[in-house]
Design a protein that fits this description.
This protein is an alpha/beta fold. The protein contains 8 helices and 10 strands.
Length: 288
Amino acid sequence: MALNKSGNVQNFIGCDASYEDAKVVIFGAPFDSTTSNKPGARFGPYAVRAESHGLETYSPYQDLDLEEAQIYDAGEPELPFGRPQPALDMIEAAVAQILADDKIPLMIGGEHLVTLGAIRAAVKKYPDLRIIHLDAHTDLRDEFLGESLSHATVMRRCHDILGDGRIFQFGIRSGTREEFKWAEKGHTHLQKFNLDGLAEAVAALGDAPVYFTLDLDVLDPAEFPGTGTPEAGGIHFKDLLEAIACLKRLNIVGCDVVELAPNLDTSGISTAMACKVIRELLLAIGRF
């Protein structure tokens, strides 16, 4: 996957730096071929770029401005539809290049399986990698409908790479009994229903390299309906802003925002909220 985009790709607002000068590189991963409920997440990267220009570059939450950051928007590749492994290989190659150039990747999904490609690259540079995972779902199935590569198995596949105790999950409120019991055996740190314990986890992680993955369905569907598998009882936008603020205390080496399906919320509210979340995340990890 080339990181030099063609001239007709619209940037996310304020992300106008050259690749050479950038500290953060964003790119899209328009893939949703294993989505188990309603598809549409492959349209997320395009939608947030277009909608982002309804935002200000300035964040009153953080008193920071994207115009003061050095962020390059690499556009998005044409990922092979219906073929998870080649898509993951392309994502892994892109993230590996960004990391090799000592920059932070921020990937915009796409379904949650795309995270696996990024983790495969990140752990090669950072063998002591940890994951902070915000989501409505456990994503810890070993297989789903006979497939080991799925957005329902992505954290289990990440565990295959990282091992026990290195994945910290928050906001989880949906999964099979077996998934919850498996996590309780110490395979992951799993906080049900809310973000309690996140600040303590951040403190404990110290300077360890951390990959942050945000499935937007962690938000309550009353606020964020534009996702393929909405789950009642989610967190609120202000809770998510507080979580993003915690990231400034971490050694974030990569991150993603996934599972916006803009076609499932024709009001545009979900896409607008996703844009604001991405802006705040970029500013939190931007190393001003």
